[in-house]
Design goal:
By secondary structure, this protein is an alpha/beta fold. It has a single domain, classed as 3-Layer(aba) Sandwich (Rossmann fold). It contains eleven helices and twelve strands. Strands 1, 2, 3, 4, 5, 6, 7, 8, 9, 10, 11 and 12 form a twelve-stranded mixed sheet that branches.
Length: 317
């Protein structure tokens, strides 16, 4: 089924070249169907690249998805044209009275800063609080996961001696089967690109949280609350094949002491091609989130969202 996007969104041409079924707004309005409404809070500098990556993964299910894009009004993005923001994005004030089946909060390159010193931290906290009553299930990615864990549960982030950079093996940690990882192999791969981490002991100290997946090399990967309405992923499953390469070249050009991304280039040689080992698990985790934590649980009438208790979400496992 298609993913519904605003007319003329730059991501559309890329997705259509990949044979992704994209439905324009005009056609969608003529259909007698309620699509899943997903809100993406895009905190990444290159918003066009990030929105394309996420829309690609959200498109790979039989579910029709309608996406709204928002950015923070309290910080003026410097790496995305203002014309693009005006045409395709809204601010929180524009959407605060709406309700959504699901929401994605992306990462952001602000790891070195204490949370409270991030320019848009107060606005982000307001949005995260709002999501608990206006969104059924929220998926947090990388720094967005660290921010959500800190804001909702007081889980701190810790600096790393070296950047966690590369593609790392992961496995499931929770003692019971979890539908977020239904269909996964015993070992699967996830890209990471971060200077900070959340630690397993801090997660396990919070009774309201479940540690779902981790890596012996890159640490905690997936965490959720006990209902599945708040999910936190510390890696970047959405990354394109070339994303880590572009970050590596960028950091080299800046003279930063960057390691070759682990288990990424052929024979670990930067002159070689990247080897994509995470694509299938990326599609699967987004499909599982949409199906089990959004589509199967959210009320048909989103105005009834506040009446849906946590007990309904618990049946997702």
């Amino acid at each position: 089924m298609p993913i519904r996007v605003p007319d003329n969104l730059p991501a559309t041409a890329i997705l259509e070249e990949e044979l992704v079924f994209v439905m324009y707004e005009g056609r969608a309005y003529r259909q007698d169907i309620r699509p899943l409404r997903i809100l993406i809070l895009n905190l990444m500098p290159n918003k066009v690249a990030t929105e394309t990556q996420l829309l690609r993964l959200l498109s790979n299910t039989p579910l029709q998805v309608e996406v709204d894009l928002v950015y923070t009004a309290s910080y003026n993005p410097r790496n995305t044209a203002n014309e693009h923001l005006v045409k395709f994005y809204e601010t929180f004030e524009d959407v605060r009275d709406r309700r959504y089946d699901g929401m994605i909060i992306t990462g952001a390159p602000v790891e070195h800063m204490p949370f409270e010193e991030v320019a848009y931290w107060d606005e982000l906290c307001e949005i995260m609080d709002w999501s608990k009553t206006h969104v059924y299930s929220t998926l947090h990615i990388c720094w967005g996961a660290q921010a959500g864990l800190y804001h909702h549960y007081g889980v701190p982030k810790h600096p790393l001696p070296r950047k966690m950079f590369g593609v790392f093996p992961h496995s499931m940690s929770y003692t019971r089967p979890v539908k977020l990882f239904r269909g996964f192999d015993d070992v699967f791969h996830v890209p990471h690109s971060r200077h900070t981490e959340v630690r397993r002991e801090d997660i396990l100290a919070v009774p309201e949280l479940r540690l779902l997946s981790e890596s012996p090399m890159s640490g905690v990967y997936a965490v959720s609350d006990m209902t599945g309405r708040q999910i936190f992923l510390t890696g970047h499953s959405e990354y394109d094949p070339e994303t880590l390469k572009e970050e590596y070249i960028r950091d080299l050009a800046k003279g930063l002491g960057i390691d070759i991304p682990f288990h990424y280039f052929t024979d670990d040689d930067p002159a070689g091609a990247p080897q994509v080992t995470w694509r299938s698990s990326a599609y699967l985790i987004f499909a599982n989130w949409l199906n089990y934590y959004v589509y199967q649980m959210t009320p048909f009438n989103l105005e009834n969202l506040a009446d849906v208790g946590d007990a309904a979400a618990e049946s997702a496992e």
